[in-house]
Amino acid sequence: MEFCTHLSMDYKERSYGGGRIYRDMIEQAVLADRSGFDAVSVTEHHLVNLGMMPATLMSVVKLAAHTQKVKIITAVAVLPLHDMRSYAGEVIVADIFTEGRMILGVGRGAYAFEMERFGVPMDVTREKFDESLDVLTTLLREEEVAWKGKYYNFDALTVMPRPCRRGGPDMLMAALHPEAIYHSTKRGFHILTTPLHGDRAHLVAQVDAFRRARDEMGEAGAHLTLMLSRAAFVTRSEKDRRQKVELANDFFARFDNVYTGPGIVDAGMARVLPRKQTLAELEQNLLICTPQEMTDKLGEYADLGIDRVSLTMNFGASQADTLESTRAVAEEVIPHFRSTSMKKTAELV
Question: Which of 171, 186, 194, 348 is an S-S bond match for 229, by CB 3.0 to 4.6 Å?
């Protein structure tokens, strides 16, 4: 099982500043690259301080310039907010500038607040996303593309430059429901999912949907991977654990507001609203724990067949604490999974 660190750009205080938060992002990515993480990821969000990244492809190129090995994943780019005719060209250039390290993760958008202010209400995001995805993949794969649809209608054109890789970069689909995971896998996409507040049975159903689709595809699906997103943090004491759980609760109080709640945002700052989930329930759901406890919990994911786990450690802790947690994962957690893989390889030899 490989490891990704999700560089979710979030600040609670406006005074922290965009320049400082993006310098933090680069420092975290450099550490992940040097310490054994397989990937880093960034997400696209506009108009709010929660996951604050309105220029995803630009950040991907910047991160590539400061790192050597890690894959750089857009997790995710919100297709309904872009015109695929221009976006396809931007994707190709980003793939060139990252020298093939970019994985293009895509989704339909999660925050009604931002989608509606761009004129894309949530009740149309699904169908606009579906058509946008079809247009994008066709423009990357073929020359002289003409289109007649509900959201796109254009005469024949060719996106330039052409992709260096056939069909463009590897693509990853964000999907939560098992049925959506199954159909997205069958279309040839890598998958990003999370159980959110769901129980283990829901996670097993998600994994089973992916594996069933990949198995049905045979050799054509053998390369496809499943990435699981989880909030996590390494702690060394009960006091530290409680503090990080409280920070996570504050983060999810803002997240719930814009994801499933009323979307109350004050001059770009998502408001903290009361949550139904208790602190004890939240702690049970997250990976905020000692390195050994995290290893044990992640072992269950490896046993299920998860290919990559994406750890979100950016939910309010200081930069120093976030870097220390990243180091701890790299030094005390990842080696357990790498050594298992190496042992199996040695046995085969």
Answer: 194
Question: 47 burial class (0-12, 13-18, 19+ CB within 10 angstroms)?
Answer: middle
278, two tokens:
């208790």
Three-state SS for 345?
helix
CATH number, domain at 14? Answer: 3.20.20.30
Token pair, residue 28, equals 């975290």
Host domain of residue 273: 2-348
Place of tokens 């490989």: 2
Q: What is the pLDDT of residues 41-83, one digit of tens each?
A: 999 999 999 999 999 999 999 999 999 999 999 999 999 999 9
β 265-266/269-270 pair status: antiparallel
Q: Measured over all CA atoms, what is the biggest interatomic distance in the chain, rounded to whole angstroms? A: 63
Instruction: Give the chain's domain count.
Output: 1
Reduced 3-state DSSP string for 222-265:
CCCCEEEEEEEEECCCHHHHHHHHHHHHHHHHHHHHHHCCCCCE
**Closest C-alpha to 61, from 93, 37, 91, 97:** 97
pLDDT digits (tens, 9 = 90+) for 216-258: 999 999 999 999 999 999 999 999 999 999 999 999 999 999 9
